[in-house]
Design brief:
The structure is a single chain. The protein is of the alpha+beta class and 351 residues long. It has three domains: 3-114, Helix Hairpins (Orthogonal Bundle), CATH 1.10.287; 137-286, Cupredoxins -  blue copper proteins (Immunoglobulin-like), CATH 2.60.40; 297-348, no CATH class. It has seven helices and 14 strands. It has a seven-stranded mixed sheet. Strand 1 (137-144) and strand 2 form a beta hairpin. Helix 2 (36-69) packs antiparallel against helix 3.
Length: 351
């Protein structure tokens, strides 16, 4: 490679590295968040990047140096076409990456368990543990097309496209989806976790500074995905109490009928608050039976655990009395009004 060509490549690489900071834009919240979980995740990214650069930077530098040092026009360079092995080089080439891989593996193992989204918080930040007796704020999250519904069972309220929590209080998010998969993501608070219909996922987090932060879905879910955003308010204890009082004063009731209307696809949904949530709405959403026209998933699974239907249902036609020891068998199609099937429970011998 000629000297001008090497200089050209070096200039292109230097220009590319100078453009890297511009990719972050003006918002660096991912690497400078205000929640302890997100802060630990940012530190993990920085540590992993540093360890990988220990190999990447020397390799790039040596590649450029070798190309320059052993270019065709440099007749002073050592020319040994029969050289094929060096124990020292082999140790460096294989030993350094192996050490870094071991370090990354250890860090990944520890952080995977330490930052498990299902694991309750043990600390508020690096200096403070969670005080004894403090219970997390429970927020039930439903991703809809294309908006977010947040239910606060302790406070008895619900909101659309608006989330709030007191500073330095652990938060437990119980999450599901009404239709397709989405991802709840508040970069300042914690990493992203999926929401899935018929399933409940969980995330534990805490916000350590008052402010208004962006939240959105990080998983494409259709036409209105781009506007599936909300604001997360980190408030003082009094500020959160005032926010709850405002929701109770100016909102309407979130009944099953209101939820079914809200569930219909819509875009750019404004912030909405509900002063009251109908009892049993969250289990009905989670088990996909809000409208009452079909059996709830947990009832269906309970019947399956008890013996289910299928070919075994034929035995139910015998109408044998149940002795309390055998498995009940469904003998007909189950409906919400007849969850055990049209025929009376029959006995299927337990082998």
């Amino acid at each position: 490679m000629s000297t001008p060509a090497i200089r050209h490549v070096a200039h292109r690489l230097a220009g590319a590295f100078l453009l890297v900071p511009l990719l972050a834009g003006c918002d660096t919240v991912v690497m400078k968040p205000h929640g302890d979980i997100a802060r630990q995740q940012a530190q993990l990214i920085a540590t992993s990047t540093f360890l990988m650069l220990l190999i990447i930077v020397p390799v790039i530098a040596l590649t450029l140096w070798f190309a320059f040092r052993y270019r065709a026009s440099n007749t002073a360079a050592t020319y040994t076409p029969d050289w094929d092995h060096s124990t020292r080089l082999e140790l460096v080439i294989w030993g350094a990456p192996l050490a870094i891989i071991i370090a990354l593996g250890a860090i990944t193992w520890v952080s995977t368990h330490k930052l498990d989204p299902y694991r309750p918080l043990e600390r508020l930040d690096a200096q403070r543990e969670v005080p004894a007796g403090v219970q997390p704020l429970v927020v039930q999250v439903v991703s809809l097309d294309w908006k977010w519904l947040f239910l606060y069972p302790e406070q008895g309220i619900a909101t659309v496209n608006e989330l709030a929590a007191p500073v330095d209080r652990p938060i437990r998010f119980d999450m599901t989806s009404s239709n397709v998969m989405n991802t709840l993501y508040v970069p300042a608070l914690a990493g992203m976790v999926y929401t899935m219909p018929g399933m409940q996922t969980q995330l534990h987090a805490v916000i350590n500074r008052e402010g208004v932060y962006d939240g959105f879905s990080a998983n494409y879910s259709g036409a209105g995905f781009s506007n599936m955003r909300f604001k997360f308010h980190g408030l003082s204890e009094q500020g959160f109490a005032d926010w709850v009082s405002a929701a109770r004063a100016g909102g309407q009731a979130l009944t099953r009928e209101a939820y079914l209307k809200l569930e219909q696809p819509s875009e750019r949904e404004p912030v909405r608050r509900y002063a009251l949530v109908q009892d049993g709405l969250w289990p009905a959403i989670l088990n996909r039976c809000v409208d009452g026209s079909r059996m709830c998933m947990h009832d269906m699974m309970a019947i399956d655990r008890a013996g289910g239907g299928g070919k075994g249902a034929v035995r139910g036609l015998a109408q044998a009395p149940w002795d309390g020891r055998s498995k009940p068998v469904v003998a007909a199609l189950c409906t919400p009004n007849n969850p055990l099937g049209a025929a009376a429970p029959a006995a299927a011998a337990v082998n």
